[in-house]
Amino acid sequence: MTLAEPGKDELAEIATFGYERARDELVNVVKMLEQGGLDLDDSLALWERGEALANRCEEHLAGARKRVEDALSHGESEND
């Protein structure tokens, strides 16, 4: 099994993923890495993809956190 090193196109595609898709693909990457049996280059390429997917999930979570904080502060200012 040979995996291509994630290129700019693939990483750009990950930037378009919704949270659920990025999370699901990250889960698959982790499973593949845990199973082992890949050579070093393939493992590194898969790990790099996992990092990009994890970063995408973090972006979504940070955005959601900000929306909640903004909604809470907006609600507090209306009660003043």
Compact description:
By secondary structure, the chain is mainly alpha-helical. The protein has helices at 8-14, 19-35, 40-79.
What is the first-to-last residue Cα distance? 62 Å
- CATH architecture, please? Orthogonal Bundle
Based on CA atoms alone, the radius of gyration comes out at 17 Å
> What's the CATH first level?
Mainly Alpha
Which bin fits the share of residues in helices?
A: over 70%
Number of domains: 1
The total count of helices amounts to 3
Mean pLDDT value: 90
Please name the CATH topology.
Helix Hairpins
Q: Which ranges are low-confidence, i.e. pLDDT below 50, for 5 or more consecutive residues? A: none
Order of helices and strands: HHH
Descriptors for this entry?
80 residues; mainly alpha; 3 helices; 0% strand
How would you sum up this structure, described in words?
- There is one protein chain.
- This protein has helices at residues 8-14, 19-35, 40-79.
- The chain is mainly alpha-helical and 80 residues long.
- The chain has one domain: Helix Hairpins (Orthogonal Bundle), CATH 1.10.287.
- Helix 2 runs antiparallel to helix 3 (40-79).
- It is elongated and about 60 Å long.
- It starts with 7 loop residues before the first helix and ends with a helix.
- It catalyses: Exonucleolytic cleavage in either 5'- to 3'- or 3'- to 5'-direction to yield nucleoside 5'-phosphates.
Provide the fold topology:
Layout: H1 8-14, H2 19-35, H3 40-79
